[in-house]
Amino acid sequence: MLFILLLLTFSYAMFQGGFVSWFLFYSFLPFAIYCVALFLYALNDLKVTRVLPKTDYQAGEPLKVKVNVKRSNSFPLFYLLIEDHLEGRLYYAHQPKHAKALLFPGFKKEFSYEYTINRLPRGEHFFHSFTLKLGDPLGLLEKEKTFAADGKVIVYPAYSELIYRPFENQYNQGLTASREQMQRDTSVAVSIRDYQPGDRFSWINWKASAKRNEIMTKEFEQRQSNDVFVVMDCVPNKHFEPMVSFTASLLRAVLKKGAQAGLLTISKERASFPIRGGEEHLQQLFYHLAKIKAKSFSSIEKVLEIDGLFMQQTVSFMFITAQITKPFVEKVAFLGQRKGSVTVFLVKEEKETLTANEQSLIARANSRGVRIVLIHEGNFAAAFSEVSLR
């Protein structure tokens, strides 16, 4: 098209003659020369980098991304259209300033632009590439190239500050939360075991450690276990994000209190974390909750039926779900009779009320010794301060 237009204007000037025809030819000639030069301009000269302030975020936090473009020469660029390719949930996140920008570099060797994602969604998000387009003022020539620029951010679930208190075991006392502190009975050491992160310095058995050349920890008799094992329902549900946030809040509160906690999720794959304590364990749990997705094909009662892990532990079980069924109530009641305390946290949206069927199932669960606590989104702090449902 460029050479056709150049030939037409030259032919018009030759055959028509006069000032106007030659003025038209010479006026078009600079644009034609610039198009040829732009055609020969190598896009590999451009270097694109993405600057992320940090890699760890909490859900709901803003992310400001800065994109820098550098080149080695000053060839004039009329315009540059650059787009950062966002994928998945990042693409649909609210962006007041979009990831695509139109720049007018001119003779500059370095230039940049910024865009902001106001509320980051939970998950592990990857950045892969940019697309750059440039062209001439008349739109006769356009060049495009994709540049690889990898990046990653981890967005951990948002959590609320909870004050964890173990529930009392006796239902005839009103099902209120106990205010006892987390304590182990360290008066009698019954065995030794390998050291685990979170064990206290005073529990180390120095004689056994010296013999085995490994750090060994005393195993104490526990009159009542304060350990907590959390099971989160991963069936696709509109309440899944509030469930993840509450699970993160609960695990953080338990571990900060000094107790130990484990977690089981069965989404696309089964993931089980043993009962442990410490900041490192909390970080592992949060990292898993950052990536978890609602892709389970098995209901939570089916998980109870086929997973033998429950029958091997005597701890306080806590189930987090958004729906309860009669088979589920029967399963957790059987588990409570054999293994001890069972609490079910039923997560609902703000101001969402219980259905008649749910109220009936809650009454049935209470009669079988299962505690069910209703949790509303935005009011997680009330989980251990209110009397549970009857």
CATH superfamily of the largest domain: von Willebrand factor, type A domain
Percent of residues in β-strands:
25-35%
Which sequence of strands runs across the widest sheet?
13-12-11-14-15-16
By CATH reckoning, the class of the largest domain would read: Alpha Beta
* Total number of distinct structural domains: 3
- On the 0 to 100 scale, the average pLDDT is 82
Q: What is the quaternary state of this protein?
A: single chain
**Helical residue percent?**
25-40%
String of helices and strands: HHEEEEHEEEEEHEEHEEHHEHEHE
* Largest sheet report: 6 strands, mixed
State the CATH topology of the largest domain.
Answer: Rossmann fold
Low-confidence stretches: 169-185
Structural class: alpha/beta
Strand and helix layout:
Blueprint: H1 2-16, H2 18-40, E1 47-51, E2 56-58, E3 63-70, E4 79-84, H3 89-92, E5 100-103, E6 110-117, E7 123-135, E8 142-156, E9 189-194, H4 206-212, E10 216-220, E11 228-232, H5 240-257, E12 261-266, E13 270-276, H6 279-291, H7 300-306, E14 316-321, H8 326-339, E15 342-348, H9 356-367, E16 371-376
Helix pairs in contact: 1-2, 5-6, 7-8, 8-9
Features:
single chain, 390 residues, alpha/beta, Immunoglobulin-like, Rossmann fold, 3 domains, 5-stranded mixed β-sheet, 9 helices
Description:
- This protein has 390 residues and is an alpha/beta fold.
- The protein has three domains: 46-156, Immunoglobulin-like (Sandwich), CATH 2.60.40; 171-183 and 226-384, 3-Layer(aba) Sandwich (Rossmann fold); 185-221, no CATH class.
- The protein is built from nine helices and 16 strands.
- β7 and β8 (142-156) form a beta hairpin.
- The N and C termini lie far apart (80 Å).
- Mean pLDDT is 82; it is low at 169-185.
